[in-house]
Amino acid sequence: MSVFRYRVRSPEGELREGVLEARDETEAVEQLRRTCAAVESLKRAPERRWGSLDLGEPLTVSARTLALTAGQLAVLLRAGLGVNRAAELLSRQSSDPWMARILKACAADTAAGEPLSRSMARHGGKIPPVFLETLRAGEESGTLEDALERLRVYYEKAHRSREKVRSALTYPILVLVLAAVVVGIVMTTLVPVMSGLFDGLGVALPLPTRILIGSSRALRKGWPLLLAAAGLGGGGLFVWGRSAVGGRVLSRVRLSLPVLGKVARSHMASQLALTLSALLGAGLPAARAVEIAARVLELPCVGEKLARGAAGLESGRALGETLAEVPELPSMLVEMAKVGEESGALESTLASIGGFYEEEATRAADRALALLEPMITVVLGLFVGFLVAAIYLPIFRMSEALSAGL
């Protein structure tokens, strides 16, 4: 995906500027023409080179930082401060240096009459589209404080969801790391000593012992190569996964996994429902809301199908019908969207179903971890059993040989 800077005219004739992500210029123009009357300028943003990497800029913006920024701005604006004064005050109080720099630049821009959303889009390249578009909709409708409050609620939910998953994964990851350290110490220190002892016994070594000694020698001689291969393989997979093709393939793999697939599906449904609720509540049209939600979904194979269906919403098609064309979406989410449209309470219905799937994702993750912990125990037990057998079998053979000699 490439980043493009654009200048467009709205249907009301207002000049707008911002950034968007698209595969090429054709797709970028198609996205802009869905909501704008005319595209005046579209330029590909220069790619950042390694030599010009800003070490103070994060790879991603945390949900907690966005929730705090939105909440504090909403409080200050409701207290009667102007946007430039509120941004300047937060820039001095923010604990995030990167966000503080952005807010300081936004304070200067808004003091000169520039909208906050446009300034943030220019200075904060890593700020997600949901945040920027909700801000822009709040400014245009004169409900900026309400838009910021919606963003606070949205990103607080996202932060809580990630923290639950992170805390649940802490114990299994810690066990795996400790197990890897113990196995490394055993294979590089204990096994070589035992190998020297067995060589002096003068008996034929059993198969488990030969496998253990051979693995130890290979690990001690080839660990730099193994480490380099693991690093290159992990880095290559990461880069490939961020490409269009790799993202689609990996997202399909995530959805097809036996246990973790349900976790990914529930989390995706929660993210989609809550994002649509926040954007529609801010006043964005359904087509634009679906387009933005498709871009921020963590599963590109689902996001691309949603983006293709966004065009039909402009011609009056129902949101539920568009969602029904994406087979990866849970049927309950689709049905609840249809019910929300028919009852005129689409925003609250999506928020409710989003909260449901958030809890469902947490429960599915807990069940997956409940299965993972005994599996780790079994694997460690098998390794310990193999280690004991590999060490004691030669000793038993030597004892049998000595008994036969007597």
Describe the fold and architecture.
- The chain has 15 helices and 3 strands.
- It has a 3-stranded antiparallel beta sheet.
- It is mainly alpha-helical and 406 residues long.
- Among the domains are: 45 residues; 67 residues, no CATH class; 95 residues, Type II secretion system (T2SS), domain F (Receptor-associated Protein), CATH 1.20.81.30.
- Helix 2 packs across helix 3.
- It is elongated, with a radius of gyration of 28 Å.
- About 2% of the residues have low confidence.
For CATH, the homologous superfamily of the domain at 260-354 is named as Type II secretion system (T2SS), domain F
In round numbers, the mean pLDDT is 82
> Strands of the biggest beta sheet: in what spatial order?
2-1-3
**Which range does the strand content fall in?**
5-15%
Radius of gyration: 28 Å
Shape, principal axes of CA atoms: elongated
Number of helices: 15
Instruction: Supply the helix-strand structural class.
Output: mainly alpha
Q: What separation lies between the terminal Cα atoms?
A: 78 Å
Order of helices and strands: EEHEHHHHHHHHHHHHHH
Q: Which class of the domain at 260-354 in CATH terms? A: Mainly Alpha
CATH topology descriptor of the domain at 260-354: Receptor-associated Protein
The share of residues in helices is over 70%
Query: Which sheet architecture does the biggest sheet show?
Result: 3 strands, antiparallel
Tally of DSSP β-strands: 3
